[in-house]
Amino acid sequence: MTTWLAGARTDARTRTMLDAAERIADLQTIVVQGSYSDGTASAGTHAGGGALDLRTWHLTTLQRGRLLLALRTVGFAAWYRTKAQGFDPHIHAIAIGCSDLSPSARAQVADYYDRKNGLANDGPDDGPWMRPIKTWEQYQADQNEDLPDTGTPDDDGDDDMATPEDVWGYENDGVVPNTDAFGVLVTTMAKADVAADKADYATKQLNSVAAGVSALSKALRDNGVITGAQHTAVNAELSGGGVPGLPR
Model-level pTM? Predict the structure, then answer.
């Protein structure tokens, strides 16, 4: 579910697009600036509809890449804005085809089609290139061709809403496909991130078991069942496996 900070709002079409991108990226977003805002800090880009700024400090590099690619997949012109560019880091997204875009937002969409970054420096696009670029309606049409019952419960009560597998064709661990050079990088990072998460979980489980064994050993020592030397030997073995902070 999207979190909207105080005062952030947008039009219904853009909100629906963001919901779809969240499902694809398997992430929850935080909108720090929406549409129809004063927009003086964004050169009027947010004065009309279809404009969003999304918080990124809580995301890993991989998650940020997944979200950016998902936003572009459903029809946003989206870029990651950095400190080097003079911004508090965030993802800036403009809904392509929104009928209520501000003139500045329309100019950014034109830059997106020209493979530019949408900034005054007229730099090259630094995000994942989409081939071809699609609007929300074109994305929906593609999904409907493959999923004629999208969004409706089938006979067994399951929801047939499009999933990441439907959109990108991957099967395991939430890894995005190799759509381009950026996609290859994100895929590799995704696999590494998944492996790291699994290793971290396994380490935490092992540490929990080891701490339990150490606590039991301490209780046995305190009750005279084993000697202090034996308890120390148990902790030494466990600590050899990288378990810190065991009861002494």
Answer: 0.60
